[in-house]
Amino acid sequence: MTLREKIFKTFIVTIREINTHGGPEKFFDEYPVGGMYYGEAAALRDKSGLEMGTQLDFDKLQECKKHSKNKLLVCADGASVRGQTVKMWSQRSLGASVNLEDAYNWGKVLGMQMNDKGIDWILQPSIDMCLDPLMYLMAISDDPEIIGKIYRQVIRGIQDQGVCATAKHFPGLGTYFVNMHIGPGSNILPFDKWMETYGYTYKEMFKEDLMSVMTTHVSLKSYDSEGDNGFYPIATYSKKLTTDLLKNELGFKGAVVTDALIMGGMATGDLIKETVQAFKAGADLLLWPPVEAAEEIEKQILSGEIPMSRLDDALSRIEKMESFRNKALNEKTYDTPDPKFADEVNLNMAKRGMCLLRNDIKLLPLQKEKYNKILIVDVTDNDEKSSVLLKEELEKRGFFADVKRDIYDVPSRVCWQNDIDALANAYDLVIFNVNAFFVAEWSVPHMLIWASHLFDKQKKIIVNYGSPYFAPEYFPEDPTFIEMNTTPTPDTVKMLVDGLLGEMEFTGKSILTK
After folding, report:
1. How far apart are the C-alpha atoms of 514 and 511, rounded to whole Å?
2. Would you kindly state where each structural domain of the chain is located, as residue ranges?
3. 354-500: which CATH number, 3.40.50.150, 3.40.50.1700, 3.40.50.300, 3.90.320.10?
4. What angle is formed at CA 335 by the lines to CA 329 and CA 337, rounded to 5 degrees?
5. Checking DSSP bridges between strand 166-170 and strand 212-215, what pairing results, if any?
């Protein structure tokens, strides 16, 4: 390979980058990139119909593979097995059940999903921890030992299917709220505490011969407070974090991939310089870079500013991933993708993760003759979907149910006790159906949580699909509280009603251990 071809082996591009440079046939003739990203969703198209985002259909992926002179290393955040019908995101349920068989099987399903679409490498799992109430992600635990146990099994399940797994987001989300899609984030732990938590979990993942780690646009200022070459001290740009800590001190032997090189958290105004700096810092695979950055990397290698050893290191780590994947494909050391198995795993995870956090006044199981007329208050970020599902399932069981979002459709009135009492007296039971990542000030969820405190606790249930911190932070006094730890779907809402009626036992535990 020429030097230029070697450099392009580190580039993982989007369909947008391909179409911006003439489409698959022209692009791959000029830019011998090492891989591309597959996003399985409705494609964002320009006026001429070209995909101009990250999503593309399966046929277009095959077209790109056909035109590439090299075998592409294709990665994805997720996909689905064709024929799979239960499409839920139940990862948080693993922290509530701590069921290692479910964890392995979930990894196995992820591997099956990738193999079904011909994807070599999944950008999963996210092994972050929920250590701050304002975190925006849905981590599975605040306990590094649980994270270590669960995600070792997930990674084993993925890689037993011959698919390269990725642990992310190094150096770790969950200690401080800044969304790295929008601005540079931080991990604020002192370094000794970081080593006991995030450092511990990453070293546990490496015991499974993990193929990839994703760094992200987050700093760890207890280890690197200065940054490199005037760039932010985020892992994306930091040689101390990516090379010294991750590769050398923690001993990671796989390939390091950046988080997407388009996010606000790493933007300085020059994407080419940013891409070059990420490579210099120690990233082996560059996710969503501009192809023009390859020329600058080549110039700096030829001038000696970037040592050739940096490129050699990247290529050797990429080769390890490729060899792992090729061996699995050649020897067929994986299972045939099975949609029925995928459905069963998702449902088992969801069921075992549902948690009756509080039943202090023994309101559950519900007595139908006492609580027949039910009000469902929709405390969601944007729509009533999950509340409508609950209404429909209750009505199937013979209950009368109403859904209201703004109580009297006048949010400013929800804080008046007499209005609340008049409404509550019209129903036998009130279920606050909470499905929000966090509660923004003066949003509908904010006002309805305010209102929830004014309802009679003797006939009120909180059902939470959202942040695990809602229970201690917003509902500390509520005696009946259910943590769902899964996505609301017809299947999981049916399980919820089964639990409300005592037809199913809630076996999950709180994912907050501290």
Report:
1. 9
2. 32-345, 354-500
3. 3.40.50.1700
4. 100
5. parallel
For 254-283, what is each residue's pLDDT tens digit?
Answer: 999 999 999 999 988 899 999 999 999 999
Tokens read off for 91: 């990862």
Residue 421 amino acid letter: D
Six-digit token pair at 104? 């392995």
CA distance 8 to 284: 11
What pLDDT, in 10s, does the model give residues 364-385? 999 989 999 999 999 988 767 8
Work out the end-to-end distance of the chain between its first and last CA atoms, rounded to an integer number of angstroms.
Answer: 53
The owner of tokens 């459905």 is 343
User: Rounded to an integer, what distance in angstroms lies between the CA atom of residue 420 and that of residue 448?
Assistant: 11
- Cα–Cα distance measured from residue 342 to residue 86, given in angstroms and rounded to the nearest whole number: 8
Question: What residue ranges in 422-496 does DSSP mark as E strands?
Answer: 429-435, 460-464, 480-483
pLDDT tens-digit readout, 280-309: 999 999 999 999 999 999 999 999 999 999
CA atoms of 258 and 280, how far apart (whole Å)? 12
pLDDT exceeds cutoff 90 at 417? no
Neighbouring residues of 166: CB distance < 8 A, sequence distance ≥ 6: 75, 121, 122, 123, 124, 125, 210, 211, 212, 213, 214, 257
**51 pairs with which residues across the strands?**
45
CATH superfamily for 32-345 is Glycoside hydrolase, family 3, N-terminal domain (3.20.20.300)
